[in-house]
Design a protein that fits this description.
With 669 residues, the chain is α/β, with parallel strands linked by helices. 39% of the residues lie in helices and 16% in strands. An 8-stranded parallel β-barrel has the order 1-2-5-11-12-13-14-17, surrounded by 4 helices. Strands 18-19-20-24-22 form a 5-stranded antiparallel β-sheet. Bound molecules: alpha-D-glucopyranose (GLC).
Amino acid sequence: MGDVTSPWPTALPQDVRARLEEALAGLPAHRRTTFGLRVARWWPDLVDGLAPYPDPTTLAGHVLEKAAAAYREREDELHLLDERRSLEPDWFQRPGMVGYAAYADRFAPGASGLAGVAQRVGHLKDLGVGYLHLMPLLATREAPNDGGYAVADYRSVRPDLGTMEDLRELARTLRGEGISLCLDLVLNHVAREHPWAVAARAGDEHYRAYFHVFPDRTVPDELERTLPEVFPAFAPGNFTWDDELGGWVWTTFNDYQWDLAWSNPDVFCELADVVLHLANQGVEILRLDAIAFLWKRMGTACQNEPEVHQLTQALRAVAKIAAPSLIFKAEAIVGPNDVVHYLGQGQHHGKVSDLAYHNSLMVQVWSMLASRDSRLATHALGRFPAVPASTSWLTYLRCHDDIGWAIDDDDARAVMAQGWQHRLFLSEFYSGQFEGSTAEGLVFQHNQATGDMRISGTAASLAGLGHALAALDAAVDIDGFEDASHAVDDAVARILLGYAIVYGWGGIPVIWSGDEVAQLNDTSWALTPEHADDNRWAHRPRLDWDRVRDAVEQPSSPTGRVLSGLRHLARVRARLPHLHASVSAEPVAAPDPGVFAVLRRHPVGTMLGLYNVTEQARQVPEWWVRELGQLSLNECVDALNGYPPNRTADGSLYLSTYQPVWLVKASDV
Ligand code: GLC
């Protein structure tokens, strides 16, 4: 029987409790009580999560002292946010949530840095944005720095963008507008120039143990047998010799990104402190960069090891105690059976990340648009294990990274295809090499050994808009003009269809900056010397604000249609409770493989998303909708236009070229 007059858990060692009480001394009584209650709530998760380390209880006590210090420093406004979020834990799952991701310096006009981001909040609000992911903006090593993913100081902002005070100010402004700020937590590696790495290079044994260093090739060679290569073209291998270290250091990504040894409890404590620090700046979502790679084990690919989930659970428990409004987003670009663990399966159910990227959905959308066939997508997405109802997918059509064709061989076989052949087809299709393709992607990291060819390019360029506009410019007669105009319309429709699938899936749909005005590949990407070997910069253009203005002024232009289309999707979405992320999306096989169908059975009513992935008109028979057992065409409206769906003479639902339809019962909306 515990002490019912005390908030502290009985399992908490007395000396830890004494130290925590001391750290909180002077705070108002209600604050101290809240902290104690939170420790009681999360202590078991914290200790369990620290199981990979030799003495979890002592370590947990040590980490709690850091949490108490951060809690003490947390601003009142953020304490208020913590309380508010604990009353609405589904805040990020609601249908009104739309995300946007951008590089601060490529989004803000001119060289206005973080202050310039705040000036453009209106644009975000028009798109319905409630979540803004600003790409790495903490101090990095000098270029090259992998777009900021080589952090040199977790506690300062890149000087060209502003200061920590500017970041706090921006977070506050955004919060006032109902927009939550998301930042990257690059936790697998630091820059070779980070003080920990500098100390290690100077011979400090304590910091040398923050990294995986090997005196010779014996262990690295053995590890390489099972390790994949992330950047085979510009950073082959997973280890880098460093003269100052006098050893081979583990570098999964570039040679200047040194993997942290998470097996060392000191590394856990340092990163837990960084989490708390960022939360206290007003950051509400942390994107756990490259999280799959944290734990290393000989004889494996060193990805998705069980310890990764334990450590995430522990980090989350620390955050829940000091800054519970903070949520985690896993960046784990891994297969379906692995990715669901990042949202919590089994013993970690609901205890790890709140959000995870739905990489497979993104890949399958591009695959359907290329093959004009939904069968593979329906099969592959349909066999995703269920995820906890308290979590959410992050859905997207494009992001700052390349697209790797994550098509599973078994999924391909199930629909009578060959995995390697389909992956090759997609690479050839999106790099424009396939007969009839108008896509203008670039091949990224062709791996000669595996045949893997990833693809860079903006959504608009991959959808063939650049090609179609060029044909329109070059048209010399009326036929040529008409053909090219149709091609432009089709490309615009492909972009909007892709986004309709992404918005209609459930979860947070995230727009990659520039997509809202159909920006094409940046043809000058290679002129920046430090980007010249990395064509991902082709799809990371500066946002063209003139284009945004033109799109607003000319709503029937291609860019105008995309911008108003995305704004419209957000407005419709916000009114549809069916899209709450707690309910899962179920792909169902429509009789016509040219139609991708997604059922969402929410207690308030069912929604059936129908997407024509081809440039021909398609039909969906009335009986098929009826037999799904949830909806009848006679009682439905298409939420996207508010009207009953178009029907053919025999009663079938009619879908025009690339048309999306969101069917719901008229009486439910
Ligand atoms: C993530 C980022 C990617 C970066 C890598 C290494 O995958 O999205 O851009 O190269 O991590 O930090």
